[in-house]
Structures are given as structure tokens and as C-alpha cells.
Amino acid sequence: MQQSFAERLCKQIALKKSHAVIGLDPVIDKLPSVLVQKAIDAYGKTSEGAAHAFLLFNKLIIDAVSDLAAIVKPQLAYYEVFGAPGIEAYWRTVEYAHSQGMLVIADAKRGDISSTADAYAQAFFSKSSPWKSPDQWVDSLTINPYLGSDSLLPFIESANTHAAGTFILLKTSNPSAGDLQDLRLDNGLKMTDKVSQFILSLQETEKTTHAYSSVGAVVGASYPEDLAYFRKKLPRSIFLVPGYGTQGNFSANLSHAFNEDGYGALISASRSINYAFGTQIHADEGTISDMIRKAALTMNEDINHNLTLSNKLAW
Amino acid sequence: MQQSFAERLCKQIALKKSHAVIGLDPVIDKLPSVLVQKAIDAYGKTSEGAAHAFLLFNKLIIDAVSDLAAIVKPQLAYYEVFGAPGIEAYWRTVEYAHSQGMLVIADAKRGDISSTADAYAQAFFSKSSPWKSPDQWVDSLTINPYLGSDSLLPFIESANTHAAGTFILLKTSNPSAGDLQDLRLDNGLKMTDKVSQFILSLQETEKTTHAYSSVGAVVGASYPEDLAYFRKKLPRSIFLVPGYGTQGNFSANLSHAFNEDGYGALISASRSINYAFGTQIHADEGTISDMIRKAALTMNEDINHNLTLSNKLAW
Predict the structure, then answer these.
(1) Where does the Orotidine 5'-phosphate decarboxylase domain start and stop, copy by copy (chains A, B) (predicted)?
(2) Chain A residues with beta carbon closer than 8 angstroms to that of B75
């Protein structure tokens, strides 16, 4: 039987000694000019050109960090901007990450009624459908719980079948996250407590003996008190923690995201790694690659330095 | 200045005397065999083949109903199953619907932090970006409020700029909709009351003199008491009402969705129209088109018959 997502992920974390997730969020106007020019030369200033530049950029990033991070997280929105060519670049990026030994989280935040959730699950998890390309699958997907339990179950069931994982939005990293998520209920709990209960209950559908569940949660670095609170409530969940770096949070805020065994959290950075070259948009590929690699190394050191000794022993 | 989405929509509703939204939710195994065979002949049993069958099917549906409905609603999930070719079929469907005088709602239920929400808004609303194909835009998009107000604002601002609209998920049509949406807060209100307040506040960002706002709401036909309650709370919102037909609700449940002027609700049906041919999967195109058209006519009659006389006078 194929190893679960959680098991594959924890092995990669131990191997690479890294809790980092590298976001892949390409924005055409911010890309290195040398890659943009190559794309224009090949496809002109078209959606195909933008998509080609994305793929070149993502390959450069993956080559620079594949030994420094277990997993990449391309965000669908940036690819959807360019329609079908953008989506083609998305799946070629996923394929390339897999070929370089990295796992992939599709950051898509999908959520819908059950028949539609089935279709989304098929789009992201299924490997062997007739008609569908066999390269079009990811290891994990972010999902939105607003529509309730029957909208989540099709994702979990499909993930269980395909040894994939999910990260359910619990407390997001943005300033307005609490508008709905922190609403206090008449029973004294918060809305997020209800989502946390969903996660516990969905974990019971898994057949696994591994310490960690493949039903994870998104908990933003911006809210350390929530990290600490839900760490206790959801001991078997791996937390996907956005908001590190550009969004203003560093490792001092993150100590509560991890369990005593040194696992349990993936710290995600996108812009601070992707655009580590800053204003040096005209630098050559080697220079840009070096700056991206250096940013990823710095991030790993920052996170690992702040893990306590007992946590480090787990490696 | 371009007419607002709400204004364009109300004109089409009056012209076609129809409050119907036709969902376009293609599932390859349920499509008419004559179209599937054409697609296999052209592209084989591949993602390109499935996508081509989707486009043929959608054109057949649009041709059958374009004078009977103001707007179509293709659901992204069904197209994402087939990767880039699926998305190509999505945008060719949108282009064809526009060419036949129909408006389009992209049912995507997107929602993310502000920088990512900007990218989604660009993907769905923007018409004149460099690099992006000029045919890739919709009139309206469904969005998910779970991440709070700062995740909604980029969509509304972009919609205002591009004379487009949004439908914010308020109370969805699925059985578990109330798991989070109906949670009772410590102030006696429900979670959906908070979302309703977002909608009112976002409507204030619009510059329009039209009776209706382009910031709409999704309220499922399954919950008539919510339709009645939010109809009063959100008088200027157009409600996108899923759950008619296959999901088990007919017009008797829908009287409260409309305002006294006969406007204010779009009743959405997907499977009951798309698959009106039932088990006659091997029928010829003319027969299938006739059955789809008949289902749309029946739906219009059912809805219009149950609108009160004073409402009908508005036409």
C-alpha cells in the first residue's frame, strides 16, 4: 500500500531537515527580465508567453531549493490569470517538482457542494481516470470549510483513496481572518472550534498507523495564540502556516506551531523566496538562483534555530 | 460609462421574461454519445477529447436556451478535471455564450488573502491586461467569504472597475450548509448575519443609480426561510438561488426570493436542464436539443406562474 501523504511528508522533512514550504506565486511584471525575454522570443507577449516565463521561473526556483525544502505550494490564482496556458504551466510545474523529488500542495482553497467537490477532488487527486492526463495530480490541496461537513467529505475520501492530503482553512493569515473565523458562539466557543471539530472527525475516516494525519489545517503565523491553542486541540494535524516572511512574521512567533517531536508544522514563504532578488530584476539566472537559494537557507536556519533541543532530537 | 452588471442583467431578464440561470456542468460519462464520438474521432480519448465534447455540448445547450435565459453559469470544477484543455473549453464556452447574447456567471467560489484575491479578480474580470487574452472575462463570479472582509474587497473593487458583479456565498443549498453558516453567535445573530453585513457594506463602494447592486448573494432554494429573511435584509441584492430541480426544490419554495418589483432573484438549474434527455444518451442532437429546450421552457413557466400578479406587472 502506498505511504500516506503525512508519512511521505515527514520522511522528506527529516531527510532535508527543513520545515519550509516554498510558494510558487509568479507575477509576470516581477519576473527576472532574462526569463521574460526568453518567453517573449518564443511566444510573444501572449498568455502562452507569460505561462512559459512562469514555467522557466518555477524550474529555476525548484532547482535552487529542491534539497532545502520538502514541498512546494503553487497558488492556482496566479496561473488562472492566463487561462489554459497558465494552467498548462501549473501542471508542468507540478510534474517538474515531482521529478525533482519534491511534494506538491495545490493552494486552491476549493470548496463546494458534494457533486462539485467530487469534481474538484478528481481534478487534483485522481491519477488514473480515463480521459485525464496521468501527470495531473498533487500530493495535497487546501480546502475551504464554509459549506460545511458534506462539502469536505468528498475531498477527504478522494484523498484517502489516492494517498493524498488536505489542509482545511482554520485560521488564515490575513488581517481580516477573524471577521468570521473568530466569531464567538452562544456556547462560548469560536467558529474555528467548530472547524477544528470537523478536522478531528474527518481524521477518523483514515486508515493509517502513522503519528500524523493527512487531514491538516491552515493556521496563519500572524496569530501565534491560535497556533498554540489548536496545536493542543489537533495533535495529529500537520499545520500549513502561511504568513512567514513578507507577511511580517518570523520564527519567534512559530514555536507553538510544532509538537514536542519536532514535527507538525510546515512554514510557508512565497514572495520572500520567489522575489529574493528584489529590484535586481535584470540580474543573470545564476545570480538570481543564488539569491533564492540563500533566502531558503536563511529561512531554514531561522526556523531550525528556534526549534527547541528536544524537538531537534527527533531528527 | 458601461452599464453595471445588475443593470445589464435586469434588462436581459425583462427581455427574455426569464429568471433562469442555466448551469453548464458537463460530466463526460453523462454526455450524449453522438458528441462524445465526434470528440473521440477528432482528439481520441484524451483530455483534449473530453474538453472538445464539453464545448460541443455547451454550444448545443446555449443554442437551445439562449432566448429563454439571461445568463449561463459554467461551474469551474467540471472543467478543471481536464487541466489546460478543460480550461480552454471553459473560456471558449464563455466566448460563445457572449456571442449569443447571454451573460455569464463563473461559478468558482474563490476566496483568498488580498494579493491572491487580486490575481483571481484579474483572471475573471480584467479585459485589457497586457499578456492576457481579451476574450477571457466573465460578467460575474461567485466568491467565498470565509477569509473575511479584506479577502472580498479586491473582488468588489475589480468588479466595480470592470462593470462586473459578484455573488457572495451567504446560505448555500447543500444539506450541511448550516454547519457553520447557521451557527448562533453570542449576540443572538447567526454567522450569515455577519456575511449579510459585509454585503451591505460592500454595496456602498459602488457608484450606481440602478435599483439593484452588482454585489449579489448566493441563497439556496433549500432554505425558504432564509430566502425570506435575507430578502428583507438585502433589498438591493440579486440572489443567485441554486438547488432548484435536481436538488429537490420547485417554485413553491421560491416566492420569497423575489422583491415586489418582480426582480431580485436568479433561479439556477444545472443537471435538470443539461441532462433533460435522461437515459436517452444515444439520441440524435436534434432530439436532445428539443428536450433541453423543453426543460428550460417548463422551468420558466413554473417560476413565472408562481410570481404574483404585482410582480409580473414589472415586466
Answers:
(1) 19-286
(2) 112, 116, 119
**Taking CA atoms, what residue in B is nearest to A174?**
B113
Q: Which residues on chain A are in Cβ contact (under 8 Å) with B173?
A: 113
Q: How many helices (H) and strands (E) does chain A have?
A: 13, 8
Length of chain A: 315
Question: Smallest Cβ distance to B176: which of A124, A148, A186?
Answer: A148
Find the residue in B nearest to A36 (Cα): B131
pLDDT at A100 over 80: yes
Check if B194 contacts A (Cβ < 8 Å): yes
- Of B126, B133, B194, nearest to B161 by C-alpha is B126
Per-residue buried b or exposed e for B18-41, using 16+ beta carbons within 10 Å of the residue's own CB? bbbbbbbbbbbeebbebbbebbbe
B28 to chain A, any CB pair closer than 8 A? The answer is: yes
Residue A77 in contact with partner chain B when CB distance is under 8 A? yes
Per-residue pLDDT at A195 exceeds 60: yes
Question: Which region holds residue B167: left if phi is over 0, alpha if psi is between -120 and 50, else beta?
Answer: beta
Which value does ipTM take for this structure? Answer: 0.96
Could you report the per-residue pLDDT of A21-68, keeping only the tens digit for each?
Answer: 999 999 999 999 999 999 999 999 999 999 999 999 999 999 999 999
Q: Which residues of A touch B149 (CB under 8 A)?
A: 176, 179
* Cα–Cα distance, B121 to A202 (Å, whole number): 32
Which CATH superfamily groups domain A5-310?
Aldolase class I (3.20.20.70)
- Asked whether the beta carbons of residue B146 and residue A148 sit closer than 8 angstroms, the reply is no
Nearest to B57 by CA among B85, B83, B84, B28: B28
Say how far residue B236 (Cα) sits from the centre of its chain: 18
Q: B27 in helix, strand or coil? A: coil
Q: CB count, 10 Å around CB of A266?
A: 27
Phi and psi at residue A190, to the nearest 5°: -105, 165
Q: What is the pTM of this model?
A: 0.97
DSSP E strands: which ranges in A126-264? 140-143, 165-171, 215-219, 239-241
- DSSP reduced 3-state for B39: helix
- Which sequence spans correspond to the domains of chain A? 5-310
DSSP, residue by residue, B54-71? HHHHHHHHHHHHTTT-SE
